Amino acid sequence: MSSGQNSGGLMSSAGLVRYFDSEDPNAIRIDPRSVVATGAFFGIAVLLLQFFA
């Protein structure tokens, strides 16, 4: 590859890194453990409903 060509790898991802690193004070913050616990709860609930229905 010649030195004049830009592969765009690092430069194209730099904007995404800056976007996702920004903190929005109005954003909803959810603890990742809460998301996992809710998913596990619904999964167990579905299994129990299939077992008893």
From TrEMBL:
GO biological process: protein transport
Keywords from the UniProt entry: Cell membrane, Membrane, Protein transport, Translocation, Transmembrane, Transmembrane helix, Transport
Similarity annotation: Belongs to the SEC61-beta family.
Regions crossing the membrane: 35-52
Topological domains annotated Cytoplasmic: 1-31
Primary role: Involved in protein export. The function of the beta subunit is unknown, but it may be involved in stabilization of the trimeric complex.
UniProt GO cellular component terms: plasma membrane
Membrane topology: Single-pass membrane protein
Alphabetized Pfam families for the sequence: Sec61_beta
Name the UniProt record assigns to this protein: Preprotein translocase subunit SecG
Oligomeric and partner information: Component of the protein translocase complex. Heterotrimer consisting of alpha (SecY), beta (SecG) and gamma (SecE) subunits. Can form oligomers of the heterotrimer.
Compartments where located: Cell membrane
Cross-referenced InterPro entries: Preprot_translocase_SecG (IPR023531), SecG/Sec61-beta/Sbh (IPR016482)
